[in-house]
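Supplementary Note 2. Why include the ligand at all?

Several targets in our set were suspected to adopt different conformations when bound, so apo predictions alone were not considered sufficient. For every target with a known small-molecule partner we therefore ran a joint prediction. The input for pyridoxal-5'-phosphate is given below.
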Amino acid sequence: MEKQRYERPIIRRLNTGVMNKFGTKTEYEPVTHIDDCAVKDLLADYGSPLFVISQKTIHETYQEANRAFNTRYPKVQFAWSYKTNYISAVCNVYHKLGSWAEVVSGFEYQKALKNGVPGSKIIFNGPDKTVEELKLAMENKSLIHIDHLDELYTLTELCEETGIRPKVAIRVNMDTGIYPMWDRFGFNYENGQAWDAINKIVLSDRMDLVGLHAHIGTFMLTANAYGVAATKLSELALSIKNKYDKKIQYIDMGGGFASKNTLKGSFLSGTDTSPSFDDYAEAISTAIMNAGFVEDELPLLILETGRAMIDEAGYLLGSVISNKRLSDGRKATIMDFGVNIMFTSFWYDHKISPAQEFSHHTEDTVMYGPLCMNIDVVRENATLPPMKRGDQVVVHTVGAYNMTQWMQFIALRPAVVMIDLQGKPHLIRKREELTNIDQQEQMPDYLKEFKL
Ligand SMILES: *Cc1c(COP(=O)(O)O)cnc(C)c1O
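The joint prediction is reproduced in token form.
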């Protein structure tokens, strides 16, 4: 038998199997497998830490969302929000399921084209589209969502120059009862800016106004706000029909549905507080159906759901580097992953499970990342069994935004694996190496040599 490592004893009251505030022990139930793949094998094969994406969970979530909307509204189209997770293999899972692409930058636009999405099925959002990018989007017949007047003027000039008649929508911001209001994107509904932009577009007669778009916020905890937004967009669409006899082809409700993550400071867990797809679908479809459209002129409903589609499908696997006692007696656990790759830990209390069986002793611990940076805290307080160096954990609900907002700070970014529907893992992004950083850098000749 291997010699046990010595650990200095401390005297401290330890509650056996202490319950959390809901009287359950679900948080520290071990999670040894993800879709039939053993966590320890995944870490042995691809290194620690490691992001894992479950294609099965993506499919299940997509089907749930699709069912919620399609059973309530006749014409629904999802468009995958690239910035939520733009690893190409992930995007293609959504495209195979029927999603169009929704992009907010030129680089994301190029990525969508490269992934094989037809130009006409790319929605181009965002406040910063260059002249070249707009031109490319016009040539590809993409749906250009205008964010501000300067963009409208640039686009008008490009229409003259190229003779192309682009398909456009305007982004509309509005008061939906949620504050602070997201009024920096698009044209405001209440003060008439949106209607003014619509008039300019229709009267100049150089582009086809095919849609109206809103993206009212992110992690929206009330479905009702979407009902308000859908009513206001429908009103605009009907006014356009009345005044100009032009039919708006689609209403795009953007993204922002909450995932099942738990916001910091929230008493209840996200699984209990976040509205379901059914709640959002009910609010949106009721609003559009009751707005007064003639039945065969109901607009297509586009949804750019990101976070709520993928958060649950993403896991981060990692290992314990060390345990410590802090000066105030609290336990601290240092993990090999930190806020550099878990950006969302700034606003969520992610569920973290041990990846191996333990006795039912638990203790509260602060979970730190490996960075030499004081704010590298992954969880301020997690109830977990005592874990030692090399023990492994599974962090849940990290599929959204972590793999796009991750930082290359102090550490290099880990590999990403997708587990397919048969339970087979595939590497979809390699672990970064020094060469990935070096290839971008250039050393001027005069700095190449030095003596110490
Ligand atoms: C970020 C974004 C989305 C996706 O938002 P989620 O909160 O991830 O659902 C959709 N549309 C636009 C315009 C966005 O900027």
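The chain has two domains: 33-52+312-438, 55-311. Residues 81, 83-84, 102, 104, 125, 215, 218, 254-257, 304-307, 400 surround pyridoxal-5'-phosphate (CB under 6 Å). Comparable summaries for the other entries are listed in the accompanying table.
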